[in-house]
Amino acid sequence: MISPKPSQSLGVKVQSKLKQLSEPQGKLERYLGSLVGSATQTGIGVRRTASSPVIADEDPEVNLFPPPLPQPRICMWKYLDIHSMHQLEKTASVEEMREVLAKLLEIGWPEQSLQDAITLDLFSHALIFCHQQGFSMEQTSAACALLQDLHKACVATPLGNVEECYRHFTTALFCHGVRRPPFSIDLFKEEQLLALADYVVSTYFRHFKLYKYVFTPEVRLDLSLTYMGLQPPKPWPESKTEEQAAIQQEEPETVAQSEQEPSQVCVLRTYIKTQVNKELGQLQKLVEEQLKASEERLSSKLTTLERPSQVSSSKGKNKIK
């Protein structure tokens, strides 16, 4: 009996292990797809107003088409290192945690701008969520880094890129859910990945357009049309300017004539009405006379028809006597 080679058995084991690891990834992809679909359908549309913080015309460095997003990588301790996480763990209240977080993010405290206040709220609520889920310091740092990278991808352009941002987020999320060194690590469990994905979709992606409205410049379209083949307008000559002056002098006379015209029209209208009424009266008389003549003719014919019958009846009576 021939036994398989060690290399062949090792390859079979690796393939089976990869299949086992790919199964939860496929489930997670389908779950995230359903979540982001519902979030984009119920997304809030925002209309641009003049109160936008930045205008694209005033900022020459605004790029409507930024370079493609970088390849997602492991982002543990990327923005919040272990010392920062220890400082956040030592805080005893939410206000103290927000103050420490503002210093770590280099945000003004307590006076803040609109963008700084929104950024602080975003990450403070993310830290509260991580604390409620019981994440470790490594998991909390990675979750905040994922959210930070997602926010940077969102505000990179004022144009809509929700699909690209979602693809970037899910790929970066898988880098922390499957053990495939050096490309990914199993930092989160499957339940933790689903909870984190659900939180990001229901908070950030649901208000994706609002974040883009606040953190991206306003885009204005200056449209100019040029028609090919048309000649430019010619200036008026001096002779025509004199004619225009004469026309302007004649305008008051035309206005006076137009004021007199309504009275003349009324007189003409009344004259026409009287003549029409006269003609109608004459026609009515003619019709009545013709009707009377026709009635007389009919009556005379009827009398002539009735006389022979009366004569014959009188003769019959005489014979009987």
From TrEMBL:
Which InterPro entries does the protein's record reference?
CLAMP
**For this chain's UniProt record, which GO biological process terms are given?**
gene expression; single fertilization; sperm flagellum assembly
Where exactly are the transmembrane stretches of this chain?
none
The organism's superkingdom is given as Eukaryota
Cellular component (GO) terms are: radial spoke
Tell me the segments the record calls region Disordered: 234-260, 297-321
Polar residues: bias regions:
300-315
Name of protein = Cilia and flagella associated protein 119
- The organism is Cavia porcellus
Q: Its gene?
A: CFAP119
